[in-house]
Amino acid sequence: MNASLSPDSWPSAHGVWHHLHLAPEALGAGTTAVPDAAIVVEQGAISWVGKYADLPDAYRQLPLHDGHGALVTPGLIDCHTHLVYGGQRANEFALRLAGASYEEVARAGGGIVSSVKATREASEDDLFHAAVPRLQALLSEGVCAIEIKSGYGLSLEHERKQLRVARRLGEVFGVTVRTTFLGAHALPPEFAGRSDAYIRLVCEEMMPALAAEGLVDAVDVFCETIGFTLAQTEQVFQAAQALGLPVKLHAEQLSDMGGSALAARYGALSCDHIEHLSAEGIAAMRQTGTVAVLLPGAYYTLRDTHMPPIAALRAAGVPMAVSTDHNPGTSPALSLLLMVNMACTLFRMTVPEALAGVTRHAAQALGLQATHGRIAVGWPANFVLWPLGDVAELAYWLGQRPACRVVRQGRLAVDGMGVHRSDA
User: Fold this and answer.
1) Of 54, 87, 320, 389, which is most buried by a Cβ count within 10 Å?
2) Count of CB atoms within 10 A of residue 269's CB?
3) Coil vs helix vs strand at 309
4) Residue 380 φ/ψ, nearest 5 degrees
């Protein structure tokens, strides 16, 4: 990214944004659309929001920004990504099309381990520059906060490298980045047959060191038949708890191992994938407020047929988030809006559910519910102006990247592909 495009040089969003149409629930759960609305931005935060006709006199001398009748939503949130990695795995995509299963690819030395090799071989700068266009594609669609996991280094040196790149991306692009340590993503080749020893390394050396360096916001585990056991997952959760770090879990993607119930006992922020989630898991998540993160990109890419229990989650009142799960192997997705469409078409979510899934519920999945996911006074100014007439269009169009205008952290973003740059 050119230094002249650094966030500090972006136009300030300071002033009154008017001639807006606030989307339903933009102000929070249960709220309705607000036509002819206004948002006041001062010092990077929202000072007032409501009908333009009710704008207090104290704000009427501020600069005006005409929204031209745009539909406005909170900034979108991509709450589950593996954005930083080396190489790509298009060859595995072809193998699966030829009949190989996800497990067969992994057991043959492909899968996560192949990305580990490429990530270890890449420098920190290599990883940063590879991740930039991926991030820009997401930002151009209105993403204002994103989770980035490690998990392709599987050693202290290389996990650190990934997490440092994630932090750097947030600084350079002026976007909220939550980092998640996923050291327990796969067994590195040098620990073949010694998974317990590797988990001890994760818990006793890697996690404490990375946390001490301020590189970890949460901890995740791949709990699965081809990943780590419930007992090993609990070891990681206990180590995270001792360090004061919240936990998340890759749970019930390929089978029901009871990971969601375990994660809920540790107050997990989220359980992700959950195609095979049981009634017991749903009950445990409901009790603790753990978010169900749905990942339709992986479901689609793997040609899965076992749909997450959406109706049961809905009936239980478990919050449901939607994310890209961007990763090189099972979800090379770079459009959160496409995931919204897939969540509706593949998982039968409603449009309001899907929009909540990439705003307030996604914020909750990252522990950001006090600052992100809706448009609220005192919160950072993160909102998107869409050239659309109806909120359903966010889920309706396939492949269209609306020329949205993005206010991110109080500035008019100018970094993403296709982002409108005029009328600052």
Assistant:
1) 320
2) 29
3) coil
4) -55, 145
Asked if 376 and 27 count as a contact pair (C-beta separation under 8 A), the reply is: yes
The enclosing H or E element of 251 equals strand 248-251
Indicate the residue type of 375: I
What span, in angstroms and rounded, lies between the C-alpha atoms of 117 and 111?
A: 11
Q: Are 183 and 154 in contact (CB under 8 A)?
A: yes
At 202 the three-state DSSP class reads helix
d(CA 341, CA 338): 5
Pairing of strands 405-408, 411-412: antiparallel
Question: Per residue in 52-106, pLDDT tens?
Answer: 999 999 999 999 999 999 999 999 999 999 999 999 998 888 888 888 887 787 7
Q: What is the pTM of this model?
A: 0.95
Amino acid letter, residue 77: I
Number of Cβ within a 10 Å radius of residue 54: 9
Per the CB < 8 A criterion, the answer to whether 182 and 210 are in contact is no
Between the two ends of the chain, the Cα-to-Cα distance in Å is: 20
Three-state SS for 62? Answer: coil
Q: Are 75 and 26 in contact (CB under 8 A)?
A: no
The CB density around residue 76, as the number of other CB atoms within 10 Å, is 31
Nearest Cα neighbor of 48 from 385, 377, 380 is 377
Which one-letter DSSP state was computed for residue 404?
A: -
Residue 52 is classified by DSSP as G
Query: What mean pLDDT is reported for the chain?
Result: 94
Place of tokens 């381990």: 113
CA–CA dist 117, 108 (Å, integer): 14
Which residues are registered as beta bridge partners of 411?
A: 12, 408
Task: Report the distance separating Cα 222 and Cα 245, nearest Å.
Answer: 17
Residue 11's identity, in one-letter code, is P
Q: Which residues pair with 291 in a beta bridge?
A: 270
**Distance between CA 138 and CA 384 in Å, rounded?**
13
